[in-house]
Amino acid sequence: MNNKWTADDMPDQSGKVAIVTGANSGLGFASAKALAEKGATVVMACRSEERGREALQQVEKAAATQPVLLQLDLSDLQSVRQFSEQFTHQYGQLDILMNNAGIMATPYGTTADGFEQQIGVNHLGHFALTGQLMELLLSTPNSRIVNVSSLAARNGKLRTDSFQQPDGYEPWPAYSQSKLANLMFTLALQERLQKKDTITLAAHPGGAATNLGRNVQSGKVMKWLAEKVLLPLLPSPAQNARPQLYAATAQDVQSGDYYGPGGWGEISGAPKQVEMPPTIGSREKWEQLWQISEAMTGVQYPV
Ligand SMILES: NC(=O)c1ccc[n+]([C@@H]2O[C@H](COP(=O)([O-])OP(=O)(O)OC[C@H]3O[C@@H](n4cnc5c(N)ncnc54)[C@H](OP(=O)(O)O)[C@@H]3O)[C@@H](O)[C@H]2O)c1
């Protein structure tokens, strides 16, 4: 592995079609731009048309192939279905599905379908999206699904009763749970994709200066420290989108691999393969997550 790997080292992506969720901001924006620069047709899946249009204009300037904006709200299963149907109708292939969008440590809230919103957006929305695009992924040679997790998964604990229940809700444990779910989903899907041409991988960005912290409830001093001291110290989204771009495009990867930044504490640095955290647990847990995700979203996978 190249320990100086940058997005410039990505192979040519001409002829490929990629979806990036949450492509208007942070790591999703950086990923969409980098893939478009390398020639992929990038579909920017954004919940706000206005924010999406602004981002599209910036990606267009760098793109080798015209990027496209499609509206997607992962906190609404109807929107996920509409997006999947429209995409499938318009495109005959899907080479890269980058499940990147996310929210962090939000106050308690529910999605349109009544799910706690962090698990709803970060995991269940992406579970439904991937399932509804699976036929297209399977029919596209060498297609990939990349799930963007976090170091926070190390503190994650799966409590499926919390998916629809406000009792005992705490913002940070709910975030960690949702990011652990991204990893469990990757492994459960990898098992289902054995003997198929489609692979699935996970990546985490370490720490990057993005808009992710905007919903965190904290005192004035902590907020000031986070915005004025911590954020400027963190690597840029372009630097730390590298693990997810590596997972999406490098040749020497395998289904089930997990990539993160290679520097101290996996916070920054060029991408390297990293270990799943001990909280990943056993197959029994991933299967429990899979079953409940199917039941809650009503999406059955064709694998
Ligand atoms: N930044 C870090 O240090 C860090 C660390 C670990 C993991 N991550 C992970 O990296 C991913 C990207 O986060 P980021 O840091 O780039 O944060 P960000 O700048 O806040 O970007 C998040 C993106 O997700 C979108 N999104 C949120 N809710 C959505 C919904 N219901 N439907 C569709 N899109 C939605 C946002 O859209 P709006 O602009 O409309 O809100 C935005 O485009 C997340 O999965 C996060 O957990 C980030």
Short description:
The chain has 303 residues and is α/β, with parallel strands linked by helices. It has helices at residues 26-37, 49-62, 77-90, 117-132, 134-138, 171-192, 220-233, 237-240, 242-249, 283-297, and strands at residues 17-21, 41-46, 68-71, 96-99, 144-148, 199-203, 258-261, 271-273.
Describe the protein in words.
The chain has 303 residues and is an alpha/beta fold. It has a single domain (12-297), classed as NAD(P)-binding Rossmann-like Domain (Rossmann fold, 3-Layer(aba) Sandwich). It is 41% helix and 12% strand. The protein is built from ten helices and eight strands. The protein has helices at residues 26-37, 49-62, 77-90, 117-132, 134-138, 171-192, 220-233, 237-240, 242-249, 283-297; strands at 17-21, 41-46, 68-71, 96-99, 144-148, 199-203, 258-261, 271-273. It has an eight-stranded mixed beta sheet with strand order 3-2-1-4-5-6-7-8, sandwiched between helices. Helix 1 (26-37) packs parallel to helix 2, helix 3 (77-90) packs parallel to helix 4 and helix 4 (117-132) packs parallel to helix 6. The chain starts with 16 loop residues before the first strand and ends in a 6-residue tail after the last helix. The mean pLDDT is 96. Bound molecules: NADP nicotinamide-adenine-dinucleotide phosphate (NAP). NADP nicotinamide-adenine-dinucleotide phosphate binds next to helix 1. The site of NADP nicotinamide-adenine-dinucleotide phosphate has 29 residues, from helix 1.
